[in-house]
Write a structure and sequence with these properties.
A: 6-stranded mixed beta sheet; 9 helices; B: about 150 residues; alpha/beta; 4-stranded parallel beta sheet; 5 helices; 4 strands; globular
Chain lengths: ~290, ~150
């Protein structure tokens, strides 16, 4: 796969098909990977491609406005590109997507411990191939497809089954640790608002201090803003320095929307964004 | 102190719920007006904020009310198909179906956020709705999220 990546990168840069390639290189710790922006052919040698390449590189597309970009994209990453296309944030013709067959990425938090393994999101992931791409890098060995009936919402259902007071206590404890570093926002490929509500002062929607009230408001707002857009790449949770289970929020909304409306984010770039469309038969049993 | 800790205190006994109602200009606001001009009686716990359309409603409005201590939030608009702007209430319906479930998941009492369709001719429905809403929120008790200290 790596050889295939280097070949196609060389070809793209030589033919001036792209100006930059978003890929991965080895980080300074010698183990993990770090994003690498390749402008010249001589840098292609440093590229790596393995299960340590955890980052969702589509987050960096917005840093190269108007340029032709080649991007190494795992199935998750292609899904977030789909949402960006749906929302007219990027142009398809500016992108050359180098799709990667994915067997899962490792959990960075456990990278130096003995029980190192794949990330939680990969355990229930059903697609090892990106939905579409311009060039596909296939694995030599066959990747066994996972069982279709594995429930990805086990932890959500567990939490839902608890009493309201218990749930409130749980989230209050989690949110009280938030230090409002906004790493979750910075790392999210779909958090691209030029001015975030959290940075607004007129009106100030919620407190900027890292106190429980402001933290709750921020985390709820972030989750709601990603409703029907989050494709579950898990970058927010990975970036969170205090370990708030942010995916438990995102997944809950994803599950509700799937149940109520049968909509899944990141499937179809031609479709209108979920909240910019409606169906006359949408559920209304909660309305009096 | 959690949301649930101030039950059975003297404060809880004397307490009257404060509810924020976001009403669409064309139907619900006129419906509430009709209830008033028809001299219908209903509890005075709702503070009404007029919005151009229920589609104008941002989930942040609801969140801000709840975070600052409103005991309940009501969003009310035209019946489906009757929106003055043709489709605003359809968008709102989708948005708030998701928000309602999500607030419940966080542990906020689902009775605190409600939605209704009230047309300009449904003054009686409005009065009945508020009676029901106030008694539901009274059951739910005071929302003390407003008393959580902010640094």
């Amino acid at each position: 796969m790596l050889k295939g990546l280097k070949d196609i990168s060389k070809e793209l840069l030589r033919a001036k098909r792209v100006e930059v390639i978003l890929a991965y290189k080895r980080a300074s710790d010698g183990v993990s990977a770090t994003p690498s922006f390749v402008f010249e052919e001589k840098d292609i040698g440093n590229l790596v491609l393995d299960s340590y390449c955890v980052h969702n590189l589509s987050n960096y597309i917005k840093d190269f406005p108007g340029e032709k970009i080649g991007i190494v994209a795992k199935p998750c990453d292609v899904k977030s590109i789909v949402v960006l296309l749906q929302e007219n944030q990027i142009k398809r013709q500016d992108l050359f997507i180098i799709g990667v067959e994915c067997r899962g990425v490792i959990d960075e938090k456990r990278i130096h411990s003995s029980d190192m393994g794949f990330d939680e999101k990969c355990r229930t992931c059903k697609s090892s191939l990106p939905p579409f791409c311009d060039h596909l890098l296939k694995d030599k060995e066959k990747i066994d497809t996972k069982s279709e009936d594995e429930d990805e919402y086990v932890s959500i259902r567990k939490l839902e089954a608890k009493a309201a007071a218990e749930r409130f206590k749980f989230w209050q404890d989690e949110f009280s640790r938030c230090i409002r570093c906004y790493a979750c926002r910075q790392v999210c490929p779909l958090c691209y608002c030029p001015k975030c509500v959290a940075d607004q002062t007129m009106p100030a929607w919620f407190s900027k201090a890292s106190s429980l009230k402001g933290n709750m408001a921020w985390n709820i707002t972030r989750a709601i803003h990603l409703a029907a857009r989050c494709i579950g790449c898990g970058e927010c949770e990975r970036a969170c320095p205090v370990g708030i289970p942010l995916m438990e929020l995102n997944k809950k909304i994803e599950k509700d929307i799937k149940e109520l409306f049968g909509y899944e984010a990141g499937k179809n770039a031609e479709q209108k964004p979920f909240f910019a469309s409606f169906d006359k038969n949408d559920p209304d049993d909660f309305i009096k | 102190m959690t949301q649930y800790a101030i039950r059975n205190t003297q404060y809880a006994k004397d307490w009257e719920p404060r509810i924020v109602g976001f009403l669409c200009n064309w139907c619900s606001y006129a419906g509430a007006d009709l209830a008033g001009t028809s001299r219908m009686e209903y509890p005075a716990n709702v503070t009404i904020i007029r919005v151009p359309c229920s589609g104008r409603m941002n989930p942040l409005f609801v969140l801000k009310c709840l975070m600052n201590g409103a005991d309940g939030v009501l969003v009310s608009g035209c019946h489906t198909g009757d929106c003055h702007y043709s489709q605003g209430n359809y968008y709102a319906r989708r948005r708030f179906a998701v928000l309602k479930r999500f607030l419940e998941y966080i542990g906020i009492d689902p009775r605190r956020f409600q939605m209704s369709w009230v047309s300009a001719s449904e003054g009686a429905k409005w009065a009945r709705l508020i009676c029901e809403l106030v008694s539901e929120i009274k059951e739910a008790g005071p929302n003390n999220m407003g008393t959580i200290k902010d640094a």
